[in-house]
Design brief:
Distance between the termini: 32 Å
Order of helices and strands: EHEHEHHEHEEHEEEHEEHEHH
Structural class: alpha/beta
Strand content: 15-25%
Number of helices: 10
CATH superfamily of the domain at 2-155 and 188-216 and 256-271: NAD(P)-binding Rossmann-like Domain
Radius of gyration: 19 Å
Largest sheet: 6 strands, parallel
CATH class of the domain at 2-155 and 188-216 and 256-271: Alpha Beta
């Protein structure tokens, strides 16, 4: 199967290249400016030359705070571009796989969100991503899959794991504690786990929206403690509140997603978040990271 991966240099896209190749697929990676998904003609030109069986869209405006001040740019890439992809994918009968986010919810729940839970995004980022979901569903719902993910980390790009490791090592040298937010709850999810789950679903006939995060949940504080412990960094970690670290865009207090549809199909292969993190570190050590 030929898989076109758009946004191939990003955190998820770069691991999707490796995972798809290991699964035996023909992989075609591409990124901006070689193809600009904001321009339908650009997408059409590239896709018609490649004739992919599957198009995976990993491209997005993911700077949550930046979206607040660049609303038009956020909607152009996270929403309008989805229409271009849906129309082109439909024209070539390619399966369209799109990546979405927990930010489509308001974070006010007390139990995990399932795919049918009411959406209520509180940020420009969340609103633009939800609109992207809606456009794809309206234009190409019959042959598209949307995977909502959250608290993503991987080997490339910026993420919480890298930030905490750097900060912890600095605090260790300066002999001071590291303070981490303890009132936001979610599920750390490894990029490779997401790639494996998506690839396992490509040949299935089910379409629509799926939640795809690791099992279990924790606070950022608890995740930071796990990172520091397994990385062997000797530093004290102290909990703090979200209000002590104000950001332009509000962060969801509760971001736990339940992979309800995957489980109903007996197709959920997402691991516990602690086990996935241990595998991530093991692979990093083998690679000399």
């Amino acid at each position: 199967m030929k898989i076109l991966i758009i946004g191939s240099t990003g955190q998820l896209g770069s691991d999707f290249i490796v995972s798809a190749a290991l699964a035996g697929h023909i992989v075609v990676p591409v990124d901006y400016p070689k193809v600009d998904i904001r321009d339908q003609a650009s997408v059409e030109s590239y896709v018609s030359g490649m004739a992919p069986d599957v198009i995976v869209n990993c491209a997005a405006f993911t700077a949550v705070d930046g979206c607040e001040t660049e609303r038009d740019a956020a909607f152009l890439l996270n929403a309008d571009a989805c229409g271009n992809l849906a129309r082109v994918a439909k024209g070539h009968s390619s399966v369209l796989i799109h990546i979405s986010t927990d930010y489509v919810f308001d974070g006010g729940a007390s139990s995990p969100y399932v795919e049918s839970s009411p959406t209520n995004p509180q940020t420009v980022y969340g609103k633009s991503k939800l609109r992207g979901e809606e456009i794809i569903t309206e234009l190409y719902g019959g042959n598209s899959m949307i995977f909502r993910i959250a608290w993503l980390y991987g080997a490339s790009g910026s993420n919480f794991v890298k930030t905490i490791r750097r900060a912890a090592e600095s605090c260790q040298q300066e002999k001071k504690p590291l303070r981490v937010v303890n009132d936001q709850i979610g599920t750390p999810t490894w990029t490779v786990s997401v790639c494996r789950q998506i690839l396992s679903m490509i040949d299935k006939k089910e379409r629509g929206i799926f939640h795809s995060t690791s099992e279990g949940s924790c606070s950022w504080f608890e995740f930071a403690k796990e990172i520091v412990s397994l990385c062997g960094i000797d530093v004290d970690i102290e909990p703090c509140t979200t209000e002590e670290f104000p950001r332009p865009a509000p962060r969801p207090r509760y971001s736990v997603l339940e992979n309800a549809r995957l489980k109903a199909l007996n197709a959920n292969i997402m691991p516990d978040w602690r086990e996935a993190f241990k595998e991530f570190l093991s692979i990093g050590k083998k690679a000399g990271a």
